[in-house]
Specification:
Blueprint (H helix, E strand, L loop, with lengths): L3 E5 H11 L12 H17 L3 E5 L7 H5 L12 H4 L2 H10 L4 E2 L6 H14 L4 E4 L13 E5 L4 E3 L1 H8 L6 H8 L14 H11 L2 H6 L6 H9 L1 H11 L14
Parallel strand pairs: 1-2, 1-4, 2-3, 4-5
Antiparallel strand pairs: 5-6
Helix pairs in contact: 1-2, 2-5, 8-9, 8-12
Amino acid sequence: MPPFVLVDGSYFLFRAFHALPPLTTSTGLQTNAIRGAISAIQKLMRRTQPTHMAVIFDTPEPTFRHELSPIYKGDRPSMPDELAQQIPYLHALIKALGIPLYMLPGAEADDIIGTLAKHAEKEGHQVLISTGDKDMAQLVNEKVTLEDSFKDKPMDIQGVFDKFGVWPNQIIDYLTLMGDASDGIMGVPGIGAKTAAKLLTEYGSIGGILENVDQIKGKVGQSIKDNVDGIAIDHQLASIVCDLDLGLTWDD
C-alpha cells in the first residue's frame, strides 16, 4: 500500500538553501531554497505515490523545551535574511500544489510529525517520514519508516540499530546520555555515542542504568551519579510529543 508521507519542511528548507548555489529573480529575491525544496517534494510525491501527504514546518515561537532549558537550541545561528525571505513563497507554493501544510505556534515540527504519524498508524497506514533529523528515529516501528529524501536512504527498525547501535525505543535514552550539541542537549559528560550504546545494550534503558549505576565503575559511573537531574531534563528535551491537540479531523 502506498505510504502516508510526512515531510519535515524545515529540514527541506535548510538543506536546499545550503546545497544549492544562490539563485535570484530579477527583483533580487533569492530562490534556491524554494526551488530545491519544491523539487525534492515533487520527486518524493512521484516516487512514493502517497495516499496522504503533509509538509510540516517549525515556527519561531519558543516551546516548552525552551522553558525547561534556557540553552535549548541556543547555539544555533540566526536565520540568514536570504533564507527567511523565501519562506512565505515556499509555503504559498506548497499550498498551491494542494499539499496540506502544518505549523503550530509553541510546537516543533518534530512534535507535529510525531502526532500525525501516531494518528496515521491508528488508521492503519504505513507512514514514511522524510527528514534528516536523527531525533525522528525514536518514531520508527513496524509501520513508520524514515527517509532522507536528499540521500534516498530509508531507515526501518533494523536500519536504526545498524546506524546507532540501539533500537528505536532506546533513541530517546541514547540522545539523553550522549547529548546533542545542535539542540543544546548537554548529555552526561564523558559519555559519547559508543558508550551510550554500550550502556543501553547492557542495561536496556536509562531506568536500568540508574538502578545499576553502582555497578558502572570509573568516571562514567560517577558522571551519571552527578548528573541525575540533568538526565531527567534532557530526557524531556529529547522526547517527541505525539499527542498534540492539532484541532484537526482525519478528513483535514
